[in-house]
Amino acid sequence: MANQIENLPNTPPEGANWESDLKKVGFVRRLLRARHWYGADWWFVLISSIAVIGFIIVAIFPGLFAPYSPDALVGPRFLAPGEEAALSVLVVPSSASYSNLKELAAGEGSTRPRIGVVQGSSTAGDLNTQAQLIDQKLKEQGNGVRFRPVIARYASLDLALQAVADGTDSAAVVQSTEFVSVKAKFTTLREADSLTGETAGSFALGTNDIGQDLLSRLIWGTRIALIIGFTSAILSLFLGVPLGLLAGFLGGAFDRILSLVMDSLYAFPGLILAIAIAAVLGPSILNIIIAISVLYIPTYYRIVRGQTLSVKQEVYIEAAQSIGARRPEILGRYILPNVIPSVFIIFSVNIADAILTGAGLSFLGLGLPPTIADWGIDLARGQRFIQTAPWMITYPGIAIVLVVLSFTLMGEGLTEIFNPKLRDR
Amino acid sequence: MPPITLLALIIGIPSILLLAYVFIRGSTGLRRYILTRIVLTLPMVFILGTLVFFILRVLPGDPVSSALGPKGTPEMIASVRTQLGLNDPLIVQYGRFLWQMVTLKFGNSLVGGHRPIIAEMSERFPATLELIIPASVLALIIGIFGGTLAASKRKKVTDYIFRIYAVVIYSLPIFWLGLILQLFFGVKLGWLPISGRIDPIIGTTLVTHTNIYFIDSLITGNWPAFLSVLQHLVLPTITLGLIQSGLFVRITRANVIETMQMDYIAAARARGIREKVLIYGHALKNAMIPVITLIGLQVAILLAGAVLTESVFSWPGMGSYLVERISARDYNAVQSVITVFAMLVALISLAVDVIYSLVDPRVRY
């Protein structure tokens, strides 16, 4: 293309110079003209775009992918990824007609059933809570049936199970994982339902300190990350681009003062400024978005201003002026389309940066209310349990890296397509 | 002698000597450039300070009522506001703020022992220096050697590894890198401590002069303390250094490649100079110039990274001080810390520009 432009004066164009110049304008045209879709870069763009689209789909429909709600307490605390959850299960004689607590209540009538537990085990507490719940429900129904079991405590698992086998107790409540190991000794017993009605399951990424499923939180966290990334990038784009266009086009004192402010803002450590803004505004999603978007206005401003300054010198702007185009028209029709490709590149990298900054803010406990399913918050929480539950910090971090990486790579690939001269940078 | 004065002397005397040398030996153009640059730093500090001031004042939210919490009666809030001068007209407050910036008298902390903020910062600031200086050195070493290596093996496996490294490092959240290093080297292997600057028991034996423990333990010859300080430094330094190294690798690589295509390199090659000498002796020297500019541009990333690194490693520096005081709603301290950061940014970019002008004689006003 460089050759073409150099040869222009020698080969007379079909129309006037400015006419062929005007044809160069346009974002889509430039994209299609980018014949340098060579080698690895083409793949970079393709793979990262697919990843980005995937993340966007997950962010729009997290409910489809997440097995649980992000706030639900679905399992035991600190369950490692893939590990079987130890449930409190009811162990009953093989011949028994009942297989859960409710049936036990109905069948026994006025005599209180004896249920065995192991002393010092968590099952006793589970049994107590469940028994009270069931009793409460029966009481509300009001037909005289109650569920107030006699809880017998045994020193060991074997003793508790022996009592059921002997017929002293109607059932025993034990941990499912423990029962598996002694199952062979008690052939007359069978494992009935779990107390809460849950089936024993494992969690792909484990659970956190209060028993929430980390996979679900991870998936729902995509939504927060992308909302923060996109909204703040769009906000700073809509403020930075017009300011940059105006400053570059108008020049003068307006340009000088604005540039001074923007340069200072650009030099200042973004995260620290965001910390200050977020601290003053208080934690909420809207505030974190405002704090981050302020940081990236100068990035757009500087690039757009620079491009406007160079485009302003082009012949076709002079041509447009001479055919009587008004200033807003020149800005909107002739300058803006030339600036858009670089804005597009910054936008992609900007989203990546905004997600990183947002995660940093919520990691410091400043950006978001602590109940929200967010990767930064999950990481901050995981840091406290780094000794006992390392999986809590592994996966949210990987999620951040993947999302940021795909947006960055998309920006990189686009840069190389639009500015082939920079391809070694 | 208070630690902060000593520290100022340690950093200040060499820089003044260097400046004096440059002024005596340098050309007129160089002298004019440095003077202009120093004069231009003042408006930058002024604008940054003004930005900090207005962001903290204009945004909604009352610092005093949130500092006092639900216990604060309207009378208490009013009296604290008067005491802080928050009831004065904005222009008076702004004037007072600028005066504080010039004199470095930031007033007292709103919480805890109500100590002067400058005294608290003089304990925290050396810790941040102790972290960011070795981290930057590490980043430069990785960046320059990695970038040159990648450029010399262009389009080969080494090159691709370093290019991928640069992009991946850029996408890593610094606090997560810190956590993973803690998990691996601190928890799993148990080789290195994961928080603090020095072992608390050994710390009691250390006599501090500068509050930079590395220097203190070295000059007092306290070897157990020195060892402990080194051990505590490893993980935070690697965290902050690695994150910064990505951009350095990238820029060094691009510049070495660009320089290698220049005519004088072709001429040198034609004279039969070996490729290694060409790259390390001829190309790297010229390629270093943009890298120095990058150090100045990286300051923002460095300081932001320092805040997060300090928080992960419970490193008692300026960053963790800022975060602590935000949680405590100590408005005075927050404003002062951010102002100091702004001055630091301006000073470092001044220093980088001066060094740049020494290295590259083309840079003159």
Strand order of the largest sheet of chain A: 3-2-4-1-5
Beta-strand residue percentage of chain B: under 5%
What's the shape of chain B?
A: globular
Main pleated sheet of chain A: 5 strands, mixed
Task: Give the CATH topology of the domain at 118-327 in chain B.
Answer: MetI-like fold
Terminal CA distance of chain B: 41 Å
**Uncertain stretches of 5 or more adjacent residues of chain B:** none
SS elements, strand count of chain A: 5
Number of helices of chain A: 17
CATH top level of the domain at 118-327 in chain B is Mainly Alpha
Outline of the structure:
The complex is a heterodimer of chains A (425) and B (365). Chain A contains 17 helices and five strands.
Core attributes:
heterodimer, A: 425 residues, alpha/beta, MetI-like fold, D-Maltodextrin-Binding Protein, domain 2, five-stranded mixed β-sheet, 62% helix, disordered N terminus, B: 365 residues, mainly alpha, 15 helices, 78% helix, 0% strand
Q: Explain this structure to me?
A:
The complex is a heterodimer of chains A (425) and B (365). Chain A is elongated and about 105 Å long. Helices cover 62% and strands 6% of the residues of chain A. In chain A, helix 10 packs antiparallel against helix 11 and helix 15 runs antiparallel to helix 17. Residues 1-13 and 34-40 of chain A have low confidence and may be disordered. Chain A has 425 residues and is α/β, with parallel strands linked by helices. In chain A, helix 7 (123-141) links the parallel strand 2 and strand 3 (150-154). Chain B has 365 residues and is mostly helical. The mean pLDDT of chain B is 82. Chain B has a domain at 118-327: MetI-like fold (Orthogonal Bundle). In chain B, 78% of the residues lie in helices and 0% in strands. Chain B is built from 15 helices and no strands. The chains are: A alpha/beta (425), B mainly alpha (365). At the A-B interface, helix 11, helix 12, helix 15, helix 16 and helix 17 of A face helix 2, helix 7, helix 8, helix 11 and helix 13 of B.
